Amino acid sequence: MDSVVQYLLNHSRLEITLVRITECTADSFNVSVEAQVTSTGPVGSIIDAMLVDLVYLDREFGKMLLPRVKTRFNGAHVHFYDQTIHISDMAIWLQLLSDSIHNEKLMYQLRNGEAHLKGPFGTTAQCGYNKDIHVLGMNGFPVLIKDVDPEEGKVVMTMRNLSTFEIDYGPTVFEIQEGGEEGQWRTIARLKGDFFTKRGEFHVPLEVETVSLDDETNRHVDGEGEVNGSVISPAARKLGLDVEKTYYFQGVRTEKEGAWTNEAIKLIRSPVLLTEKFISLY
């Protein structure tokens, strides 16, 4: 009996559709997961809750409790929310996040689970549980400047997240950086606001503070202290007009002191095209 059940477990599939990460601290986070188990065989069963190791590149970075699941011939849904995960290997956890941002696909594993199953007519079985999880990555995390409000000093960034990961970074600081010669970069704008990556396409409003270019004043202020966007400085005209220059949207830090998100946000570095409205801020 155990060997038959082990075969079915080995050939079942766990398809993750959502991994939402919140409440990030120095060495932990809360996770909510939505998934579906398929290819479980023709007979339903109950799989008791079990503890599994979270593994990436053959290194464990934490443990997770899978909830009790009742399977049917067509599989089962697995949902659980706000479970606290303690990070045991920060380096490999950050590597997983980096690969999820920059790669098209990746795989992590659930390992060393002990599955206790109850089948029909009082049958029981105990089997090992190890599962490879194949997911899409963000493939570079594309970023666009969607809109600019010069009077309010705000921009709206459009982003696209193809992965299953959603992460609440909280209040976050970004920079737009301009590339120069010999790999040198300079900051031309700083942006700040709440940042929560969502699945699919989503919009992020951010306050923007421009940085002066070529020692020129980049914001023109009238007598009452309001920004006047009708004048464009010579320095601003250089933005976006030099085909040899490139611009990047770069994560800098979060305001969660000591949290691992301060390192994770730096992994976000995406090319961005400056729009005429954005250039009008200078």
From TrEMBL:
The opening ranks of the lineage are:
Eukaryota, Fungi, Dikarya, Ascomycota, Pezizomycotina
Superkingdom to which the source organism belongs: Eukaryota
Q: What is the recorded name of this protein?
A: WGS project CABT00000000 data, contig 2.3
Where does this protein come from, organism-wise?
A: Sordaria macrospora (strain ATCC MYA-333 / DSM 997 / K(L3346) / K-hell)
